[in-house]
């Protein structure tokens, strides 16, 4: 604003004689032109800075996480920490990113996934009883536990393939804890947070007998809020809070598959 004022005064000095005399006309006009150039350059720098700065928060779809994993895997080291229902979204998306790495890329990737303990009774996921109320479904929990164990086996096998192909060094870890299955967030390198909840409970026929209606959580099409630490104090605080929560829960959780003694 000050630079614009100087420029305007310079123009007045050029065309209004008394003012021009007082301000020494041409000399002041030259300064005004320089001031305008400086103002334009300053405005452009500010615009570019604003364009390059991450938004304080933005909405992304769960299925679009892959592009962010792709970016993280360009670094020499990457870490992905996630809490979810079964870990399916993160496993599927990051597996595709890892498999598409070129030979010799070799980032060191640590992946930690925390899921609910499906050996413990819970009503959601669960089933509908004869009165239409939620209750625990041991058979459905067994299905979900088998699915998580399959993801763990698949990621362990992928880690071996990546090592043999000299594409990456992957360390996948799965732990379980008796927590709410609605929790859903993912941290990438402690810099980006994708935060949300499972916002849909689906009533559907069970996959395995006996015939019944199960209550299943659906999250693949969920919208997540993306926070980046470079976007300001609010975003940094949000990322820090989720990191501290994850580390606390991870520290008290137990391995999905106990190590052989």
Could you characterize the architecture of this molecule?
- This protein is α+β, with helices and mostly antiparallel strands and 261 residues long.
- It folds into two domains: 2-52; 57-255, Endonuclease, Chain A, CATH 3.30.870.
- It is 44% helix and 26% strand.
- It has seven helices and twelve strands.
- The protein has helices spanning 2-15, 17-23, 25-52, 66-72, 88-99, 138-164, 233-252; strands at residues 57-61, 77-83, 108-116, 126-128, 134-135, 169-177, 183-188, 192-197, 200-205, 213-218, 223-228, 254-255.
- The chain has an eight-stranded mixed sheet, with helices on both faces. It has a four-stranded antiparallel sheet with strand order 5-4-10-9, covered by helices on one side.
- Strand 9 and strand 10 (213-218) form a beta hairpin.
- It is globular.
- It starts with a helix and ends in a 6-residue tail after the last strand.
- The relative contact order is 0.15.
- Mean pLDDT is 84; it is low at 45-54.
């Amino acid at each position: 604003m000050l630079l614009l004022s100087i420029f305007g005064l310079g123009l007045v000095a050029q065309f209004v004689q008394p003012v021009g005399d007082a301000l020494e006309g041409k000399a002041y006009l030259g300064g005004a032109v320089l001031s305008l150039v400086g103002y334009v350059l300053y405005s452009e720098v500010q615009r570019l800075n604003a364009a390059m700065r991450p938004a304080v928060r933005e909405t992304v779809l769960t299925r679009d996480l892959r592009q962010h994993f792709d970016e993280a895997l360009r670094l020499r080291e990457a870490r992905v920490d996630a809490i979810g229902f079964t870990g399916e979204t993160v496993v599927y998306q990051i597996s595709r990113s890892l498999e598409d790495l070129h030979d010799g890329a070799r980032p060191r990737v640590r992946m930690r996934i925390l899921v609910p303990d499906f050996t413990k009774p819970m009503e959601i996921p669960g089933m509908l009883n004869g009165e239409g109320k939620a209750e625990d479904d041991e058979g459905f929990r067994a299905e979900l536990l088998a699915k998580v164990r399959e993801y763990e086996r698949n990621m362990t096998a992928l880690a071996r393939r990546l090592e043999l192909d000299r594409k990456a060094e992957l360390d996948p870890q799965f732990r379980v804890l008796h927590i709410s299955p609605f929790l859903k967030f993912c941290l990438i390198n402690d810099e980006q947070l994708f935060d949300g909840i499972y916002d849909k409970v689906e009533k559907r026929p069970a996959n395995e007998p006996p015939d019944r209606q199960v209550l299943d959580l659906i999250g693949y099409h969920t919208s997540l809020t993306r926070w980046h630490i470079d976007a300001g104090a609010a975003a940094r605080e949000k990322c820090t809070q989720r990191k501290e929560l994850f580390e606390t829960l991870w520290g008290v959780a137990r391995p999905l598959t106990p190590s052989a003694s």
